[in-house]
Write a structure and sequence with these properties.
This protein has 128 residues and is mainly alpha-helical. The protein has six helices and two strands. The protein is 59% helix and 3% strand. Strand 1 and strand 2 form a beta hairpin.
């Protein structure tokens, strides 16, 4: 399948497909005329790749776990473990953001004439 056909089948741009190919996430044979020739299973692979991205996986994480995504039917337990790790990572980030939000809200609750960045026990001086 040529790049235009793959782009149409996946709703991805040709530039995106070329980018994935340059990163090694997608492979194509070259025809005698130099055109890329993608295998039919490239459509399914790109669907897995895009789903992984929509679930928060970076391209680097996908590249590292690519063998897992190439055959999800036989690596379900490993994929589930990867999803559980991603969920734990997201939970940790949410907890960190919740803590940050509480700190900001506390600073905003101080009187308007007080500097919200100054702590009561701060020994930092402007001359330092």
């Amino acid at each position: 399948m040529q790049i235009g056909e793959l782009a149409a089948a996946t709703s991805l741009s040709r530039d995106t497909l070329r980018f994935y190919e340059a990163r090694g996430l997608l492979t194509a044979r070259r025809r005698g005329n130099g055109y890329r020739d993608y295998p039919p299973e490239a459509v399914e692979w790109l669907c897995y790749l895009r789903t992984a991205q929509s679930l928060g996986f970076t391209l680097a994480e996908i590249e590292a776990g690519m063998p897992l995504l190439q055959d999800p039917a036989t690596s379900g337990a490993e994929l589930r473990a990867a999803l559980e790790r991603k969920l734990a990572d997201i939970d940790a980030r949410i907890a960190g953001l919740t803590e940050l939000r509480a700190g900001l809200a506390q600073r905003l609750a101080e009187p308007l004439d007080a500097c919200p960045l100054r702590t009561p026990t701060s020994s930092f001086s402007a001359a330092a």
